[in-house]
Design a protein that fits this description.
Blueprint: E1 4-7, E2 12-15, E3 23-28, H1 39-57, E4 61-68, H2 73-82, H3 86-104, E5 111-114, H4 119-131, E6 135-138, E7 141-144, E8 183-187, E9 202-204, H5 206-218, E10 222-228, H6 232-247, E11 253-259, E12 262-264, E13 267-268, H7 279-285, H8 288-296, E14 304-305, H9 308-325, H10 334-352, H11 357-373, H12 380-393, H13 404-422, H14 426-438, E15 441-446, E16 449-454
Parallel strand pairs: 3-4, 3-10, 4-5, 10-11, 12-14
Antiparallel strand pairs: 1-2, 6-7, 7-8, 8-9, 12-13, 15-16
Length: 467
């Protein structure tokens, strides 16, 4: 079936199309680098990592760009608090962010574009808006005039500012023509970074950075724009207003995708709320595959609760797949090939349906349950299916370290342990468990039987610097 996505702009599920057949130009809003990234960021960027991987798997040639907001009010305020240089602070936390993404296995981004590398393009775009009558000047810089863009609000369905919006990025000035007007270029202030150009000494506003970057990379229109749902208003509305006003072309992006928020005890995870867990702290408590599974087992548009129970459920689900992988033999039958083929079709049909990862994983577990009950053991067709799934998800440790003979020996030991347990000889059963643990084997007794898996160093998250 053709790939479909839920487009935020139309609020409908529609076929995924691109401006050039077989080519995807994809932009996702990146971080503002003033502090360590938290697991809310990890959710969004892991889910878009899956999107990019699947588009490539589907045959598209993808250019995935992400901006780095390294010129911003938040960075300046944090630098002032720490008596630090804003550029050095931004460079430090950009490095930390890039390290976090590597540790999470998020490797799909082709271009990380920094705002400070695009100052000339930002100035040029503001000049275009001035020339076209979409901007006006106040004593503290240039502002976008929302009244000049009749389509403002078409993405979110509103134009008013609400408490849940990114209020720290709303530019206040008593002289603004409209309450929602936002800064394009901020005049120089003492102690703040600035650039000198046609607009005078100053620095860019937040929204203009992204459209100047995407225009430089892709031109005024491209295929897919993504980000978290809390960026829809006002940030993405502002991007649309700026780029479509400057270029005279619409739409800015053919498709808009937004991820749901990560929540803790029902509240959005954010630095401003003080309820956030950094990616580094999370990876010190669990392995990166479990963290990825926690995010990818939920639909990207859904809000996800982050807690110990969710991580435990993710780890248990991963182990079911990893245990199944250890039952795979070197031969197939017509039956095992057929069931693996059917499972493959069902799995990828769900991904074609707006990246329905929970539905895809449900199809995988249906296949595992049916195969475990079948007479013939799974063979190479099953191994290839799991490998292809893991190329996309990177959530399973599909160990090839233990050969068939060693696996058979472990299974035999577990059968002997189960016999001891039935005979209520728990001392002997525990001895087998301890012997296996000494060999690096973890076992788990479940209603569906005893599961086992090796506990290699690879199960922990990638090593990260401590600061």
């Amino acid at each position: 079936m053709p790939l479909t996505i839920h487009d935020t702009l139309t609020n409908t599920k529609e076929p995924f199309t691109t401006r050039t057949p077989g080519v995807v130009e994809m932009f996702v809003c990146g971080p503002t680098v003033y502090d360590l990234s938290h697991v809310g960021h990890a959710k969004t960027y892991t889910q878009f990592d899956l999107v990019a991987r699947y588009l490539r798997h589907s045959g598209f040639r993808v250019t995935y760009a992400q901006n780095i907001t390294d010129v911003d009010d938040k960075i300046i305020r944090r630098a002032q608090e720490l008596s630090a240089d804003p550029r050095e602070l931004a460079e430090k936390y950009e490095r930390r962010y890039r390290e976090d993404m590597v540790a999470l296995g998020n490797n799909s981004v082709d271009i990380h574009a920094r705002a400070h590398d695009h100052i000339d393009q930002i100035i040029e775009q503001v000049q275009q808006l001035i020339e076209r009558g979409h901007a006006y000047r106040l004593d503290d810089g240039w502002y976008f005039d929302l009244a000049s863009f009749a389509a403002y609000g078409k993405l979110s369905g509103r134009t008013d500012i609400r408490p849940e919006d990114s209020l720290s990025r709303i530019d206040e000035h008593s002289g603004k023509r409209n309450p929602g007007d936002f800064a394009l270029w901020k005049a120089r202030k003492p102690g703040e970074p600035f650039w000198n150009g046609a607009l005078g000494e100053g620095r860019p506003g937040w929204h203009i950075e992204d459209t100047a970057i995407t225009n430089a990379l892709f031109g005024p229109q491209y295929d897919l724009h993504g980000g978290a749902v809390d960026l829809i208003f006002p940030h993405h509305e502002a991007e649309i207003a700026q780029m479509e006003s400057a270029s005279g072309k619409a739409p800015l992006a053919l498709h808009w995708m937004h991820t749901g928020l990560l929540r803790v005890a029902g509240s959005k995870m954010s630095k401003s709320s003080g309820n956030f867990t950094t990616i580094r702290d999370a990876l010190a408590q669990t392995d990166y595959r479990t963290l990825r599974y926690t995010f990818l087992s939920q639909h990207y548009r859904s809000s996800t609760d982050y807690n110990t129970e969710a991580l435990q459920q993710a780890q248990a689900a991963r182990r079911r797949v990893e245990n199944f992988a250890r039952t795979i033999t070197t031969t197939d039958t017509a039956e095992t090939v057929s069931t693996a083929t059917e499972a493959r079709t069902a799995f990828f049909a769900h991904l074609d349906d707006d990246f329905d990862t929970p539905g895809a994983l449900a199809a995988l577990f249906d296949y595992i349950r049916a195969t475990n009950k079948a007479t013939a053991a799974p063979g190479p067709a099953a191994a290839q299916l799991l490998a292809d799934i893991n190329d996309l998800f990177d959530t399973f440790h599909l160990s090839t370290e233990r050969g068939t003979d060693e696996s058979a020996a472990i299974e035999a030991a577990l059968q002997q342990r189960e016999l001891h347990r039935k005979n209520k000889d728990f001392t002997a059963a525990d001895r087998i468990r301890d012997d296996l643990a000494a060999q690096g084997i973890t076992i788990e007794d479940t209603p569906e039987g005893t599961r086992w898996w090796p506990t290699p160093e690879q199960q922990t998250g990638a090593q990260l610097p401590l600061s």
